[in-house]
Amino acid sequence: MGTVKEDALLFRLGYFSESEQKLLQSTGAGDICSRFFDAQGNICSEEINNRTIGIELEDLRRKDKSILVAGGQRKTDAIRAALIGRYANILVTDQYTAQALLN
What we know:
With 103 residues, the protein is an alpha+beta fold. The chain contains 6 helices and 4 strands; from the N terminus they run ααββααβαβα.
């Protein structure tokens, strides 16, 4: 579970152009397996998604068990969006993040 904040690992590693990073930051909530999604759980950029190697988010929806392990205030929006998108059916988190998600 990644975020779209300035210091996100994929941004710091330079995988995206400046314009792609701005697009992901302006429309995205987070990423799972380097696949970026918005607050409603929809893919942010089909172009970026199509060149990403790894499990498709749609495939995560079909798994019997799809476990998301994440926590912290910085990731609350991303976790919420992943749950809305139904990319995980099990969440392991801390009590403060759980409370923030419930509020």
